[in-house]
Amino acid sequence: MRIVTWNCCRGPVSGKLPVLAALSLSVTVIPECPEPVDTNSMLWFGNNPRQGIAVAASGPYRISPAETRDVPPYAFPVQVTGPTSFLLLAIWSQRNPDFRYVRAVIRAVEIYRDLIVSQPTVIAGDFNSNTIWDYKRQPTQNHSGLVQQLTSLGLVSAYHHFFGEAQGAESDQRFASAVIPENHITWTTASFRKRGPQRFARSK
User: Fold this and answer.
1) CB contact set of 96 (below 8 Å; sequence gap of 6+)
2) Euclidean distance between CA atoms 87 and 191, whole angstroms
3) How does pLDDT run across 70-123, given as a tens digit for each residue?
4) Which H helix or E strand runs over 28?
């Protein structure tokens, strides 16, 4: 299985999807994606047709919207079915006046907690968050607080687990890895910008 998240930084999506197709991906999360003309091949979420979140699947994998709840923008649950079925929480955190960036993700995880613990889960997208900005927020409302929250739910950062790197010390800030480990629960923290998506490591 290959999972990628790529912040495509707006612009027509028609010219960007072929780049992703070349990676032979199973599931793709694309923050800042305009609403595509053809939504038969993917799901799209958002309030602004010029910027939202797209989720696509290929090969033996299929996607469908899961139960949507009132959460800060944006976190959308998607049910993925295939050889390995799981819940996907697609993330694009924003500057919300009540829940800025990482606080929005923390709140979304709280609200969707029952779904997350009920089945294998992947949380992927643009978190707009990193440990280097911890000092700006209270300990339970910063990136390290999010990491602790996800760890308590049995989730691990696929990038940091795979590459053995510490939070805030990423060697390539464009690169994230979504590897489904043995417990089939993972999350990703990095997003791709400007230089395009990179190939992810594959699970066994």
Assistant:
1) 72, 73, 103, 104
2) 19
3) 998 899 999 999 998 999 999 998 887 778 788 899 999 999 999 999 998 999
4) strand 27-33
Class (C level, CATH) for 3-187: alpha beta
Nearest alpha-carbon partner for 102 in 72, 70, 58: 72
Tokens representing 13 are 């999506």
- pLDDT tens-digit readout, 143-201: 889 989 998 988 888 877 777 888 877 776 655 434 333 333 344 533 222 333 433 34
Residues in the chain: 204
Pairing of strands 3-5, 42-48: unpaired
Q: Are 58 and 39 in contact (CB under 8 A)?
A: no
Which is it for strands 27-33 and 3-5: parallel, antiparallel or unpaired? Answer: parallel
pTM: 0.82
For strands 42-48 and 51-57, give the pairing: antiparallel
Peptide bond preceding 74 in cis form (omega within 30 of 0): yes
